[in-house]
Amino acid sequence: MRNFWQKFLPLILVLSLSGCGYNAFQSLDEEAKASWAEVLNQYQRRADLVPNLVATVKGYAAHEQEVLTDVANARSKVGSMQVTPELLNDPEAFARFQAAQGQLTGALSRLMAVAENYPNLKADQGFRDLQAQLEGTENRVTVARNRYITTIKEYNVAVRSFPNNLTAMMFGYKTKPSFTVENEKAISVTPKVDFGDK
Questions:
Q1: Is the model's pLDDT at 108 over the cut of 70?
Q2: Distance between alpha carbon 53 and the CA centroid of its chain, in Å?
Q3: I need a surface site. Which of 2, 38, 96, 151 has the fewest CB within 10 A?
Q4: How far is CA 62 from each of CA 67, 110, 115, rounded to the nearest angstrom?
């Protein structure tokens, strides 16, 4: 009888683990890591564009120092963050990462708004190329974030659903944070439209 258990216990364990969601968690966890890596890749691409963009704007609008400094500081903050796969399991660190990226997004938006005031800058081919690259990168960031959100939703549903949640508890799988709307308070306020006295 002891021989029977020695031979078949590993097989029974393997079969029971595959039926309880363990393999699904492995797959979902890998998908989460891959989609996170793509998000980071696109954010890095954006951060790499910033120095050239700032230098080009500075050439035409050097007295817009506050905006240029804001962009440089926001990029520096993003670059100084320790981004590891463990960040996916730490909601507070994830929120700090998202806030830092949001600050860079806001700073870049202000920089682009400033650029509108300088016709020579807008006409500069180098600036237009950088602007097009930034716009394309922002689109890629949005796509990568959406894929990540979908992947994390599937992962979190698996972690919280019975009977998979028993496997999740046994092996330490916890829900992972996802991206949220960066400025929920601002978008919840009804915009005011004022056509003036005409």
A1: yes
A2: 22
A3: 2
A4: 10, 15, 11
Q: At what angle do helices 2-19 and 22-60 cross, to 10 degrees?
A: 40
**CB of 75 within 8 A of CB of 104?**
yes
- Paired tokens of 80: 């100084």
With b meaning 16 or more CB within 10 Å and e meaning fewer, what string describes 74-111? Answer: bbebbeeeebeeebbbeeebbeebbebbebbbebbebb
**Phi then psi for 81, rounded to 5 degrees?**
-75, 140
Locate all alpha helices (DSSP H) within 124-171, ordered by sequence. 125-160, 164-171
CA separation for the pair 144, 138 (Å, rounded): 10
Please report, rounded to a whole number, the percentage of residues in the chain having pLDDT higher than 70: 81
pTM: 0.77
- pLDDT in the model for residue 162: 87
CA atoms within 13 A on the CB side of 89: 9
